[in-house]
Design goal:
This protein has one domain: Ferritin, core subunit, four-helix bundle (Ferritin), CATH 1.20.1260. It is 82% helix and 0% strand. It is built from seven helices and no strands. α3 packs parallel to α5, α3 runs antiparallel to α6 and α4 packs antiparallel against α7. It starts with 5 loop residues before the first helix and ends with a helix.
């Protein structure tokens, strides 16, 4: 390899590195990896909490909202997986979301809907903020595009849960 020009050596080294497993993951910035982890935890929680609410909610409107969360966040999760490329999505829920899901599982029937909506309001406020930052300041083009594409859906979810909270508290 010493007979090659410096530019040829660089290309060979880059080709070898690109072929090695894990290089794409290692090359991903810490910020991108953190975004994937945070969004992955949130999305998994949304699907699991929604499935639980479809079974346990007493209000037909809350059940309908929950079903939409399952449907939409399943699709968003698949889009995140694609955008993340070689970066792994979390295999299980983080401590915060595990605790919230446990609270929903043991909530008395009469207070389940209110607790679910409270958690959904908090979750969607955080998700909207997360995607706003990623869509404007993210350093990974695929994740930045993912955030920009899915931000309107999450903003709509936030509006829906805000409206539901108002009608359910009457």
């Amino acid at each position: 390899m010493s007979n090659l020009k410096p530019s040829s050596r660089t290309l060979i080294v880059l080709a070898v590195l690109a072929a090695m497993p894990g290089i794409a993951e290692a090359a991903a910035s810490k910020a991108a990896q953190q975004f994937v982890a945070t969004a992955g935890h949130a999305g998994t929680y949304e699907v699991q909490a929604g499935e639980l609410a479809v079974q346990r909610a007493t209000s037909p409107d809350v059940k309908s909202f929950a079903q939409q969360m399952v449907t939409d966040h399943t699709k968003i999760g698949e889009a995140l997986k694609t955008a993340a490329g070689a970066m792994p999505l979390p295999a299980k829920l983080d401590v915060k979301h595990t605790k919230e899901l446990a609270e929903l599982k043991v909530a008395p029937a009469g207070s389940f809907d209110a607790l679910y909506l409270k958690q959904q309001l908090d979750a969607h406020e955080k998700a909207v903020a997360l995607l706003k930052v990623e869509s404007s300041k993210g350093d990974d083009p695929a994740l930045k595009s993912f955030a920009a594409t899915n931000l309107p859906t999450l903003q709509h979810h936030l509006e829906m849960v805000q409206a539901l909270e108002k009608t359910q508290s009457k």
